[in-house]
Amino acid sequence: MEFLNPIKILLIEDDPDYLSILENELNRTDISFEYYCESKFAKIKDTILEKTIDLVITDYKLDGYYATDVLTLLKSDTEISSIPGIVLSNYSDDEIIINCMKKGAFDFIMKSKISKLYFSVIEAYNAKNKEIDNKKIRKELKRNEERYRSLIQNLSDIITVHDENQTVKYVSASVERILGYKPDEFMGINPMQYIHPDDHKLMLNAFDEVISKSNNGEPTRYRFKHANGKWIYLETISSNLFDFDGINGVLATSRDVTDRVNYEESLKLLSNAMMCISEIASITDLNNKFTFVNQVFIDTYGYTREELIGQDVSMLWSHKNPQELTQDIIKKSNETYWSGEVLNVTKSGDEILVYLNTAQVKNEKGELIGLVGIGVDITKKKAIEVELRESQERTQALLNANPDIMFVFSRDGKFLDYRCPDENILIAKPDDFINRRIDEVLPPELAKLSSDKLNLLFETNETVVYEYEAVINNEIQYFENRIVKKGENQALCLIRNISKKVIAERNIAEKEQLFSKLFNESTDPVLLLSDNEFIDCNIAAVQILGYRSKEEVLSKSPWDLSPEYQPDAKKSADKAKEMCSVAHNYGNHKFEWIHCNADGIEFPVEVMLTSIVINKKSMLYVVWRDIADRKKAE
Description:
Elements: E1 7-12, H1 16-26, E2 33-37, H2 44-51, E3 55-59, H3 67-76, E4 85-89, H4 94-102, E5 107-110, H5 117-153, E6 158-162, E7 168-171, H6 174-179, H7 183-186, H8 200-211, E8 220-225, E9 231-241, E10 249-256, H9 258-276, E11 280-285, E12 290-293, H10 295-301, H11 305-308, H12 323-335, E13 337-345, E14 351-362, E15 368-377, H13 379-401, E16 405-410, E17 415-419, H14 430-433, H15 438-441, H16 444-460, E18 464-472, E19 475-485, E20 490-497, H17 499-521, E21 526-530, E22 533-537, H18 539-545, H19 572-586, E23 588-596, E24 602-614, E25 617-626, H20 628-633
Parallel strand pairs: 1-2, 1-3, 3-4, 4-5
Antiparallel strand pairs: 6-7, 6-10, 8-9, 9-10, 11-12, 11-15, 13-14, 14-15, 16-17, 16-20, 18-19, 19-20, 21-22, 21-25, 23-24, 24-25
């Protein structure tokens, strides 16, 4: 018998002569031993731990203690409880032997039969190692069991086992995290009660296929009621494991795919929306090949859809574009987005200037799968912009030649400097105001206003803007004064003549009065719509609706004055919002509509929506034209 390492033995014996006998007895074999001797009880544990003792051989009776005390120490202390103990004694009393064995002795050997010691030592050593191995195995099994339990509990999927009636026999703890139900609530139930009624037939057929083993692992997607009352989408893969011991049922793995379904719906909506928009729209894959183009794209470039799909975007590229532009578009689009002008070529060879915006397309996992491009043909617009820019430059040159009036004031209100293109528009001559205070130069009311605004500037350190009027050359002129700090103790005033602006605003007010008159006296029903509510209407609108006063119409939405559904089967509320959105986006929109009067009688109208801004608020100017007679003729 061979051992890789020497067997370490602690000999507890207070007779030196007998220690020699023990060592000689064990050394007669070919097994290597290491001996450590200790007779003081208090040091036994420390010696075992320090020397990593494999087993203990102790005399029964020692100086001040017995072998039973040693055995009690070995078994009661977890650090050394695996160390076997062998007792040697000259006492053959049965009671002593039984007591030692009860205390955990591996063997009890009479000193007169010392030849048995070798075999007992080998057997004890092997038993100890076997126990250690068993403990390791049990520990590993426990760790694997805990790991498996943790894995099941933290899965992103729900694991369930069902009997032939769909009753739940087992459910993983993840059901609470995903569906909000406690596992105990799920045990013993038929989950059909939580499945959307419209999906019952689908799920019954899927379960039957699993029972008959005709389902090849195809997932089933359906709606399931969450504990919070909302419907979510689950996707389940089931297997028939009735013949598998330990399961004996249908094993189902279910996953929440609500986000994926919503993402797929969003893509579908995006595709439909892109087909309807008036801009040039396309989607390319990561290899820069077209995977989608809308009708505007086809009409703009003159190719058929079949000629474009699968082709590289470079087929439209003009050689006049800078070489680095392509790499710049691809690089920035893959990072975030790109926008700018590109020169493309149509099928007929015509060059068009397109303002292109690109954005990333990602899947439900957030992974980049392609790029979307929205473009506008700005060839004509660009020519107009060039002409407009030249006009603006000419205008700017004129403006530069006629700068605003500028004054520099001290903190205490003294005129320090000025610049004026025409000194005839000044209230006083420069010699009469330089180095003089405001109240010494300006009329009292204007002086007080100017001083107050100057003080406000230095108190708040914020730009002060105000308007005032003054009589210049016997004529009332209107000015805007913008005051900014110039250092700590000076202020710069930029004064602009806004007389034209004031007059224009008055003209606008007059036009608004005219608008109000046309609005109220129009023979066609006219209404104002803001935030989906009518805020004003004329008498013609009240009359066609059959109400007694406009107050009965106001605060109502378009769908409040309509049947629930329009002739195309769309809900009036949904379609009205859609029509308003189109008008806001494109400036105006004309369409036919069915309204109801106060008695609930339906009547057809042609609606013209025009986007306008009143008091800086965007709203819709609504005109109805009664087309009942036309509809009858049709």
